[in-house]
Write a structure and sequence with these properties.
2 helices; 36 strands; single chain; about 525 residues; mainly beta; globular; six-stranded antiparallel β-sheet
């Protein structure tokens, strides 16, 4: 969901409390009504949708008003209680500038839009415990209910030099008690923001409710720190109230991320309408704060992504929700196109500044791939040193998005394939170095490995291109990279899309499907069916 509005200067950040209720999708989000940057009086803005694509903005759900949140209503989550009763747990910045956890409930449960929310008179429910600083205690997760009927929730924290998931328990969702030990903690991380804890089925792309706990699911522990969203896969041992990861955080580039680009403060929810788990995240800007002030807005949300456990059980897979396809228009198809060394060709017939493209690459002579340097460990550093202009054997090959006709401006999303003594390695990069002629932009190059066996399957890429944001999904969603770019020349009708191969070995485009994308209605006012105010 794009982060801009016609009428006011705004800042959009963390997605909060997404849910599906009585036929309507809801998304709350951190919002500064007073300016384009993060401010001292953040509110819970509120938008709703029937289809996850077209959104109608409502009045703010939560605004600072009481001693327990007078200095901001920060992030939190929605939990659906028995009887289909949604409730909000959120972090308030109180009169003493401490972070405390508060409860809010809908004023009218018969209203599917849930326009009005009432703060519980007994707030705060949770305050910073001993040995936790008042500014290191925030962002409650969706709560889950155990087989014993007790509710549990995690609060992000930093304690004893460890990033920590503090566990609380409650019988009635009002009176909460801190458990003796954290659900999980790690000395390899920083302060945990926006934690998320949820089950994923072992052998299905479906999602399940957050309270599901049985032998057919694993659990995901996710935390936001160091400007990225990291996660681990593991087992939730209810008898010990412990999360036991298969592989612990290491504090290195080997740790799993939901997305290896600009992507932070993500939040998932279980969509009971279609039995799937959906992920949203905040994408921040890459230009300066002064630019944000001048344009009057900053920040946007990713497209909603369905998320599930890969068949290997080692990582998550993400894919844009199927509703995104309703925006497709003007389809272009290319099959069996060979890309010789140094070749480039334009994907014409679509609006390249607003497009959806899927491409499958076949490598006919895989055994000819070069050996990977044994010193190369960090994929982002590899992509930065070995950019799209460097000639390897297999690669760089991929897409040049938001490019000028003469390639003066271009954002390269590409792959390299290397041999190891045991198998092959696929590297995915998103290079912003030549994305704009403008200076003073963040043009960081991002990179990650893609966990696929290139001997058994083709290398796939899907990129959603929307003017200043590109969301790319490599290896059928096993590796995701989101970028913000601000071309000076390659805008609107002057933007072009190319496929290229700078490797010395030929690659084949087995299939390329590309579409122009129609505009979604974003943050309309006046009613879900009224788009006149968009």
């Amino acid at each position: 969901m794009m982060g801009w509005d016609k009428w006011v200067n705004i800042d959009y950040t963390d997605p909060n409390g997404p849910m599906y209720y009585k036929g309507v999708y809801h998304l709350f989000y951190q919002y500064n009504p007073d300016g384009a940057l993060f401010g001292d009086s953040m509110v819970w803005a509120h938008s709703v949708s029937y289809d996850l694509i077209n959104w109608f903005s409502l009045d703010h759900a939560l605004i600072p008003s009481e001693p327990f949140d007078i200095n901001s209503c920060w992030s939190g989550s929605v939990t659906i209680l028995p009887g289909n009763i949604p409730v909000v747990l959120y972090t308030g910045i109180d009169a003493n500038h401490n972070q405390v956890q508060n409860l809010a409930i809908p004023k009218n449960l018969s209203d599917p839009l849930l326009i009005e929310w009432v703060k519980y008179s007994g707030n705060p429910l949770m305050t910073p415990p001993d040995r936790v600083k008042g500014d290191n205690f925030r962002d409650p997760t969706t709560a889950w209910q155990g087989s014993d009927g007790t509710w549990r929730v995690v609060i992000g924290s930093w304690s004893n030099n460890q990033g920590t998931a503090i566990l609380y328990q409650s019988e009635d969702f009002v009176h909460w008690t801190k458990y003796q030990d954290p659900l999980y903690s790690s000395s390899k991380t920083e302060m945990w923001e926006c934690p998320d804890f949820f089950p994923v089925p072992i052998n299905s792309t479906n999602g399940v409710d957050t309270s599901v706990k049985n032998p057919s699911v694993r659990h995901i522990m996710k935390a936001s720190f160091n400007s990225h969203d990291y996660y681990i896969v593991g087992t939730y041992v209810t008898e010990q109230e412990k999360f036991l990861p298969d592989v612990d955080f290491t504090g290195t580039s080997q740790d799993l991320r939901l997305d290896y680009g600009k992507f932070y403060a993500s939040k998932t929810f279980f969509d009971s309408k279609k039995n799937r788990r959906i992920l949203w995240a905040w994408v921040n800007e890459s230009d300066s704060t002064q630019d944000d002030i001048e344009k009057g807005w900053s920040g946007l949300q990713t497209v909603p992504r369905q998320i599930w456990l890969d068949k290997t059980g080692k990582q998550l897979v993400q894919w844009p929700v199927e509703e995104i396809n309703s925006l497709r228009d003007n389809e272009v198809n290319i099959y069996g196109k060979q890309l010789e060394s140094g070749s480039i060709f334009e994907v014409s017939g679509i609006t390249a500044s607003q497009a959806d493209v899927e491409i499958m690459f076949e490598l006919p002579e895989l055994e000819e791939a070069e050996f990977m340097n044994s010193d190369w460990m960090d994929p982002q550093l590899i992509c930065d040193r070995e950019d799209s202009s460097v000639t390897g054997r297999f690669g760089p090959f991929g897409l040049l998005a938001l490019a000028t006709k003469d390639l003066t401006e271009q954002t390269a999303i590409f792959f390299r394939v290397f041999r190891r003594h045991k198998g092959y390695v696929v590297l995915m990069c998103s290079e912003q170095r030549r994305s704009s002629l403008r200076n003073e932009l963040d043009k960081t190059t991002y990179g990650a490995f893609v966990d696929i066996d290139s001997r058994q399957e083709m290398i796939s890429l899907r990129s959603l291109i929307d003017h200043s944001v590109i969301e790319s999904f490599g290896g059928k969603g096993r590796t995701c990279i989101t970028t913000r770019v601000y071309p000076k020349l390659a805008v609107n009708d002057e933007a072009h899309l190319f496929a290229f191969n700078n490797g010395t070995l030929r690659v084949t485009i087995s299939r390329l499907n590309a579409w122009s994308m129609k505009n979604a209605n974003i943050n309309c006012r006046g009613g879900l069916e009224n788009t006149a105010s968009c």
